[in-house]
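Many introductory courses stop at the sequence. We go one step further.
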Amino acid sequence: MSQQDENNRDLAKREQPTSPPVVRAQIPRTIQLGQQDALDITNLAQREQDALEAEAHRKAIERDDRGQRIGQDLTATAAQIRTFTDAVANTTAQNAAVTITNTKDDALGRTEMMFGNTDAARAGKLSRSQQGLADNAKFWILLVVIVGVVIVLVAAFNR
């Protein structure tokens, strides 16, 4: 090799740092998302970290409360079903007819139940009032009366 190559080779050499660069030490902060996922919020500002942690705790409490309410409602619904089924079985054993209907609104939503050994129970269709709808019979009767009065008045004035 020539002298010039030797000098250029020295220029290309780089010195390796003896220690890694100093980085400000932060305590890792994470937020648990569900059962297995975690979100690292270490690089956010302190105020943002605190706000996110507070929101995560609030949501966890709401999720736990909803889960407990749903569990309680499921237990209550299962107990009602057992009670109604036993009542129908006892009534059937006594050669009697029974139809039991029940509707309820809870954390699970609206639950409509019909039990029995009658044709109505076999059809499985709840009446309007059992479905929580208004009974319109009075409205229709009133409407027919009004229409009847109008027809009578029109007929009387056309003579």
